[in-house]
Design goal:
This protein is an alpha/beta fold. The protein has 15 helices and 12 strands. A 10-stranded mixed beta sheet has the order 3-11-12-10-9-4-5-8-7-6. It has a two-stranded antiparallel sheet with strand order 1-2.
């Protein structure tokens, strides 16, 4: 009985101790990601129960990460788009598998190999250009306005934040009281803290993961998927946790900049992504999204990341019951309209554009 309890684990969560309180609850076991032979776990289960037992081992898969780009400065006329029913998307292996596999893929294939083409050494142009629309004082009578007034500025959320310079930029804005980033890969958070020593970003709270075994033997039972950390420094808080398993209701964000999180995840995960976003923001909050429009062969358009995610897709995802109609602020060529990258041309694409979209929580 005791061994079975240890193997099942408990629900782990953590709460930020800073100005903006944030909590992340995750599956606390994640045994599939622990590097022990199957026979080892089988013997433990056998010792803890009478008869036979089964151990489910999680398989790895790809997952979400952030994708970043720079923007041109030539705007188009704003276009308001109405929602239509979202197209059905077949569930992918990515959607069905565990956080352990998702985070492992991005850590091993991208961050550990320095294969992070989405990360730019400059502040995202869309954030600088449209900050006056994202960070405008919220409408009177909304929860966002109440928080804005109480804290002396916005609480800005960055989903799948990586180590973007946009966080540092937002923290310097006079309209911003605090910034919250959510990133699943620990290496990305460590690099961000190391590259910005002026923030004095430190790990202030940790839930080790791995169930009760992880609680008492964290050095052995490490599990990035179920462990969570809170990093704080100045006006910045980073929650190191898997976005899809995190409990984000305490974030109470009044503004969000999605600089490529939505286009990086598989389309089958989009509804789950938006559901999580809805729990993280308060009524009256604005969200600035950088979408991707692919043109060319059907196979090329379907490829990703970054996945084809236009203002029409965003309108279908953000329901009219909870969100205002998305406004298309600008469509421009990717990377300031430069030559089409070779990998896109080889995929049969003739153009890749960025669409800057603004939407507000009702």
């Amino acid at each position: 009985f005791v061994m079975n309890t240890l193997l099942r684990g408990t629900n782990a969560s953590f709460t930020s101790t800073g100005k903006t309180s944030s909590a992340c609850g995750v599956n606390a076991l994640g045994l599939g990601s622990l590097a022990f032979p199957r026979a080892f776990w089988t013997s433990l289960v056998f010792m803890g129960s009478v008869g036979s037992a089964t151990l489910a081992v999680a398989s790895s898969s790809s997952s979400s990460s952030s994708y970043d780009s720079s923007f041109a400065t030539t705007p188009s006329s704003p276009i308001r788009c109405e929602a239509s029913a979202p197209a059905a998307v077949a569930p992918s292996a990515e959607h069905q598998n565990s956080a352990a596999g998702r985070l492992r893929k991005w850590r091993e294939k991208n961050w550990e190999q320095n294969n992070t083409a989405w990360h730019k050494q400059a502040v995202n142009g869309a954030l600088g250009k449209y900050a006056h629309q994202l960070l405008v004082a919220p409408r009177d009578g909304t929860k966002a306005k109440e928080i804005y007034d109480a804290q002396g500025g916005h609480v800005v959320l960055f989903p799948l934040s990586g180590k973007t310079l946009d966080i540092v930029y937002a923290a310097t804005r006079k309209e911003v009281a605090s910034v919250v980033g959510v990133e699943g890969v620990r290496l990305a958070v460590k690099e961000f803290a190391r590259e910005h020593p002026s923030l004095d970003l430190r790990e202030t709270k940790t839930t080790p993961g791995g169930g009760l075994l992880g609680r008492f033997l964290p050095a052995i039972f490490k599990d990035e998927a179920t462990a969570t950390e809170t990093w704080e420094g100045g006006r910045v808080t980073i929650l190191r946790a898997d976005w899809f398993d995190a409990t984000l209701s305490d974030a109470k964000a009044t503004a969000v900049f999605d600089r490529g999180a939505l286009v990086a995840i598989h389309p089958s995960l989009r509804e789950s992504y938006v559901s999580q976003l809805e729990t993280a923001v308060v009524p009256g909050a604005r969200v600035l999204i950088v979408g991707i429009e692919r043109q060319g062969s059907a196979s090329g358009v379907a490829m990703g990341p970054p996945f084809h995610t236009t203002v029409d897709d965003i309108a279908a995802l953000f329901s009219s019951e909870r969100w205002s109609a998305p406004i298309l602020l600008e469509t421009k060529g990717m990377d300031d309209g430069g030559p089409l990258p070779e990998r896109f041309a080889k995929a049969g694409l003739t153009a890749v554009n960025e669409q800057i979209v603004l939407v507000e929580r009702k």
